[in-house]
Each structure stands twice: as structure tokens, then as C-alpha cells.
Amino acid sequence: MEIGIIGAGNVGTAMAALLGAHGARVTVTARGARLARIRAEGVHLDDRGTPHHAAIAALPRLDAPQDAVFLCVKAQDLPEAVAANAAGIGPGTLVVPMVNGLPFWFDPASAELGAVLDPGGLLRARLDPAQVLGAVLLMTIRRDAAGRATSTNTPTLSLAPVAGDTDPGRGAGLMAVLNAAGIRASAPDDIREAVLVKLLANIATNPLSALTGCSLAQIGRDPGLRAAAFAVAGEFRAWAAAAGYALPSDRWLGDLLLDAGDFPTSMLQDARAGRVLELGAICRAPMGLARGAGLAMPCLAAILARLEAAPALPLPEAARAAALAGLPLPLAERT
């Protein structure tokens, strides 16, 4: 298979290194110094102590149709990325958006999602739903100053068609390639539920970590941070229940935080680097769906407002407490 990877950030680098090191024909897109470095040195991933290196093709944009294209950019950058790489996406190309938060394909009929995730309608106009595979990647990744990626857990990828009338076997060849590269790929019974399970963790921790400068384990250990995370999770879980989805409990979330160790969320990494945060897909889109169902998410709204007002990092403990003061926590979370 000819596999294109659009974006050479954390996820793009890890995917390119694993696939390329195991013989897949990979082309990655990058710009500027990152493009020059990949051309000179290839891509690198340390996966739980096992090094993976691949010398792969690198271009500013894809110039020929691929069998599969992984969109490894932030959700807010998807329209621009798809437009710039239109030459690489043919009618038969499988398109795999590897985004955090709610993806644009989650509910095609939702005006709330469209306004936040695809405001110009470019994604829906250019991509046939039958060629889109929903993806949920569970993998902790960070990169050093040289662009070398490190991961501390087994890469696990849920992958399935997003359109109900699509052949469920479409993508079987791609899944075989992924598994051969050490990426544990499988098709869930419900890709949308898989999205929401991951989003439960993301929505409860990403904005909170960017606001306070705290890692996942710090959030899990600190009573105030944990209470805020559980409050946001409860708000999101209430919407999911109304929509017919049963999401994991706070005990599951608490264990997840502690098991992750002192790992900075992707949003905290972006905040530290001065990059634009994924607030649309992770926060605003779920809040829009909740509003559409007549439900509010006051704790998330308060964290989002404070984060947008003063995202100063890192916060000393006293300032961190001030950032959390007065959050509208449920009574159960205050004790």
C-alpha cells in the first residue's frame, strides 16, 4: 500500500516511524526545518525502549493519489490540510482523521458540530463518507527538540467506516499493514462510542492541564484537580447518557490518570510550546451538542473561560489553587 501521512507532529512521526520501519511505502508531509530534517535523518520513535527508524519520502504536500491517507494534524487544521493535499486523495483513497476530540464525521446532521469543526463545509464537500475511516488512537507520545518521538505504551488503534452503508470490510488491508507494524488495530462494534470513551478522558484533563500546567498523574493525585476533572467528566457523561451512550465511571478515569504517570497531555504540550490549543474539537463541540440537547456543562465552560483569559504556564501551586477557585463543582465533588 502507498500510505500518506499528512503532518509530522507527535502522531504523524510515530505512525511514520512504525509503518516505515516495517516496510510500508510511506510519504509524510512537513514544512520548513521539519521537512529538511526528515529528508536528512528520517523519522525516529522510541517505543517502550525499542527504537524504530525509517528513511521515508517527505514532501511539502502529497502529489499523487495514495491508497490510504492519515490526517495527523489538529482538528482545526483539517480543512486546510485536506485542501493542500487534494492531489493525494483520490476517489479510492481511504482517509483516516487521527484527531483528538469530536471528529467532523461524528454527526453529519449536527449544525453545532459543523459550525465548530467544518465551518466552511470543505471537509464534507471534498470527502465521501464512504472513504472515511473513523480512528481512535490510544498512545502517549512526546517529541524532543530534534523531533524524535517517544511512547510509553502499546499503540492501539480502533478503526472502522463512519458511514453505515459502507462495506465493513473496507480497510481490512490497511488494518493488516498496521498490525504488522506493531500497531494493535481492530474494528470496534461502535466507532462513535470508542470516540466518546477517549473523549471522556480528553475533555476531563486536557483543558485542566493546560490551565494549571499539571500532568495526568498530578491531576489524579491532587484532590482539587481530581474533583474538577470528575466534575467535567460528569457533565460530559450526562450528555452521552441522554444520547444513548454509557461511558466509564470516575473510578476508571481516576485509575487512568494515575497509570499515565507524569505525562503532559497534548494540550499542555501545545500550551508550553505556544501553539494553538484544540479547544474546538475537545471543548466547544461537545458543549454545542450538550446545548442542543438542553444540557449545560458549567464546570467545563468555567475552565475554558479561564484558560482563554490567561493561559500562563507553569503555574505555582498557589496560583493553581486560584485558577480552580470557585469552579461550579457538584456538591459531591466539593467534599
From TrEMBL:
Keyword check for Zinc: no
EC class (word): oxidoreductase
Keywords assigned by UniProt, alphabetized: Pantothenate biosynthesis
GO BP, one annotated term: pantothenate biosynthetic process
Highest taxon of the lineage: Bacteria
Gene3D superfamilies cross-referenced by the UniProt entry: N-(1-d-carboxylethyl)-l-norvaline Dehydrogenase, domain 2, NAD(P)-binding Rossmann-like Domain
Reactions listed under catalytic activity: (R)-pantoate + NADP(+) = 2-dehydropantoate + NADPH + H(+)
SUPFAM superfamilies: 6-phosphogluconate dehydrogenase C-terminal domain-like, NAD(P)-binding Rossmann-fold domains
InterPro entries to which the protein is assigned, alphabetical: 6-PGluconate_DH-like_C_sf (IPR008927), 6PGD_dom2 (IPR013328), KPA_reductase (IPR013752), KPR-Related (IPR051402), KPR_N (IPR013332), NAD(P)-bd_dom_sf (IPR036291)
UniProt GO cellular component terms: cytoplasm
Domain Ketopantoate reductase C-terminal: 190-308
One annotated GO molecular function: 2-dehydropantoate 2-reductase activity
The keyword Cytoplasm appears for this protein: no
Domain Ketopantoate reductase N-terminal per the UniProt entry, residue ranges: 3-102
Pathway participation: Cofactor biosynthesis; (R)-pantothenate biosynthesis; (R)-pantoate from 3-methyl-2-oxobutanoate: step 2/2
Record EC number: 1.1.1.169
Protein name: 2-dehydropantoate 2-reductase
Organism: Mangrovicoccus algicola
High-level lineage: Bacteria, Pseudomonadati, Pseudomonadota, Alphaproteobacteria, Rhodobacterales
